[in-house]
Amino acid sequence: MKTTFYLFSFLILSSFISCNDDESINEIPQMMENSEPLEASFQQNVSYGNDSQQVYDLYLPANRTDEKTKVIILVHGGGWIEGDKADVTGYISLIQQNNPNHAIVNMNYRLAVIPTIPAFPNQFLDLKAVITKLTAERETLQILPEFGLIGLSAGAHISLQYDSVYDTNDQVKFVADIVGPSDFTDPFYADNPNFSTLLNFFTDESQYPPNTNFATALSPALQVSVRTSPTIMFYGNQDELVPLTNGDRLNAALEANSIEHQYTVYDGGHGNWNTIQFADVEAKLSAFIEAHLAID
């Protein structure tokens, strides 16, 4: 089992790995009637569940209100078995610079441990729990519960799947997919003789109908419908972990369902692009945020 586990990790695992165990620091002031405009605020390791991994960092902008301040959620990568919110903190400064009036949530989720703790649907439900908590705290936080999701690698897979399958209230307004696995029926995965077994290890079968084809059910490209949100995608044409065909398949599904989308392919691998390419990601992502999660 250990051999196949490492094979799966090699195929899909992203390289964003680190750790952050800091405790909560700053308290968030509540909006009081007739009070002065709120200052920017930060809260670290906010708990949204009983597991120690179910925490997020919250960045609230100055002058926020529950009528305009929309929320961007960052979802890290790590092949569903590792990674941490600290891995994507670089995106926070970019968003604060280019889209300064948005609130930002940088979340952790329960990591899979084979064979005892599955990834699916736990990680989709963790994203749902974050959105549910933030929505319930709208007045206290002074945010408008409309969301954009930015996911990297496995985090992009989680974000895409959540948007098309779990976002029944249409609170997600866009998804940014950075080298995310999107179709497990792709020969890149399906032709691996161990893949079906490995996918079963990652899945809590009791949470799905009997005889579910998990390769299909867990593939965001195969879940796209008219309900899917506008999507911006970034892939590398030399990616050895997530093949470019996954980007192509997701792009085709979005086109077939007339979903607004952008698709950019860079010369390079699994997000290890050059400075010019990353500047292009930044510019396109910022513009997409302004187009689909505008602060009125």
Automatic annotation (TrEMBL):
Domain BD-FAE-like intervals: 57-254
Cleaved signal peptide residues: 1-20
Matching Gene3D superfamilies: alpha/beta hydrolase
Keywords tagged on the record: Hydrolase, Signal
Domain of life: Bacteria
Protein name as catalogued: Lipase
Lineage: Bacteria, Pseudomonadati, Bacteroidota, Flavobacteriia, Flavobacteriales
GO molecular function, one term: hydrolase activity
Cross-referenced Pfam families: BD-FAE (PF20434)
